[in-house]
Amino acid sequence: MYIPKHFRNEDAAEIRQLIRTYGFAILVNQTASGLHATHLPLELVTGADGSEYLQGHISRANPQWKGFSDNDEVLAIFSGPHTYISSSWYNHENVPTWNYLAVHVTGKVKLLEGEALYQSLKHLVNRYEAGNPNAVTLEGMSPDYVEKQMKGLVGLEIAITGIDAVQKLSQNRDAVNHERIVSALENREDPDSHLIAAAMKKQGRQP
Fold this sequence. Notes:
The protein is α+β, with helices and mostly antiparallel strands. The protein has 5 helices and 7 strands; from the N terminus they run αββββββααβαα. It has a 7-stranded antiparallel sheet. A hairpin with a 5-residue loop joins β3 (43-46) and β4 (52-59). α4 (175-186) packs antiparallel against α5 (191-203). The longest helix is centred in the middle third of the chain and has 16 residues, at 114-129. The protein is elongated and about 65 Å long.
């Protein structure tokens, strides 16, 4: 991912928080038949040895997973909040742009089966069911039903080999125009504009 130096995010805690908050990712890989991409939830997991990896699953009917045996390199794209920035907010002539947060994770994928797949599914369900008044659990489902559903899935574990993170938040604008953008975003009604405004306040601007 192309990232100008002043937009690169190297804060490990912020990067991992974005992955966890915006865990519905796009998984991309190159196969003999071309590029494949799947939208899916991916969980950032820390192993007992401190190593980090991503876990998820796709439908067995999805042909993407069959390409992993020939090429195990994958790209997971996590997109955070994003919003349009109007050039009418500046006090000088300029072009419109877009502010956004995103993380690209590269890694090598292997397949999960049996108990490893079950534990991955259990972790995922427990996370997203947390707080629901009638929370669903894998343990609460009949074993036969769970086993049948698992047969239709292919579990994935991605060993992370690289992380690139971007936070394009108008850091390159002067103090006056930085504040004008924040104010304009706060006056909008959509949640992403408010999230980007808050991120801009936290990040500040380049000296």
